[in-house]
Amino acid sequence: MTTASLVDRSTAVAARATELSKIYGQGETRVVALDQVSVEFRQAEFTAIMGPSGSGKSTLMHCVAGLDTFTSGSVRIGETELASLKDRQLTRLRRDKIGFIFQAFNLLPTLTALENITLPMDIAGRKPDQRWLETVIDMVGLSGRLGHRPAQLSGGQQQRVAVARALASRPEIVFGDEPTGNLDSRSGAEVLGFLRNSVRELGQTVVMVTHDPVAAAYADRVVFLADGRIVDELYGPTADKVLDRMKRFDAKGRTS
Ligand SMILES: Nc1ncnc2c1ncn2[C@@H]1O[C@H](COP(=O)(O)OP(=O)(O)OP(=O)(O)O)[C@@H](O)[C@H]1O
Ligand SMILES: [Mg+2]
User: Fold this and answer.
1) Whole-model pTM?
2) Which atom of ligand 1 is nearest to the CA of 209?
3) Which of 22, 27, 74, 213 could be bridged to 239 by S-S, CB 3.0 to 4.6 A?
4) Fold of the 44-56+86-255 domain
5) For the segment 137-161, what is each residue's pLDDT rounded down to a tens digit?
């Protein structure tokens, strides 16, 4: 087994899925994308989710982040049960408690870096906490670029804007689906460093889907999915250990 049972469990849980299942389609087209997955994401912990293509990584992330519905089971963000929320409450929870970083940076081209960073809060009619905002902008090294538009920024800088945008409202938890998938290795390393710093220095909770063992090594733990199930968990990952584990998935994505 892994060292999971040795880790201090008293820490608060930022998000939790319990026996979470997601089934697409019916009959011949039926796909069990998630099969009774139970997983916790503790506060101030950086988790990477890995597994073969089609194993359910994005589905898990979307269901836990309230972006997608699920078939059965439950999801909690902090103390809030997602299934108990009405649409508008869910929208508000996503906006206030969850940060997202996508593979495509999803910045608005007509807005400056700073305007992009504060956009979700502007839409919500909320004033950013200036000190926090400055801390985040400093951390991602964008102080000199705040007036630039996305087209005037490198890919790595654009993704740093997206990271700052996700952190700006000080969400309960930040989710990224291959946040470095479109970056060269140096820019990717920078963004991963900032994510790790946000966990270490700011106490953020981060959950990141990745295919890259080097990216996963920035996390505190790696959760491995196969066929919609959690098949393993690794604490203190190194790229070598992650690669070793990944080699044990066969060509069909099953675990051996
Ligand atoms: N809208 C949908 N309708 C039907 N099946 C779907 C839908 N979305 C995903 N699936 C199926 O659910 C399973 C899990 O998909 P998911 O996108 O979570 O995989 P993933 O692990 O993120 O893969 P990748 O690494 O390729 O992004 C796959 O078999 C996929 O074909
Ligand atoms: Mg995916």
Assistant:
1) 0.89
2) 22
3) 213
4) Rossmann fold (3.40.50)
5) 988 889 899 999 999 999 889 989 9
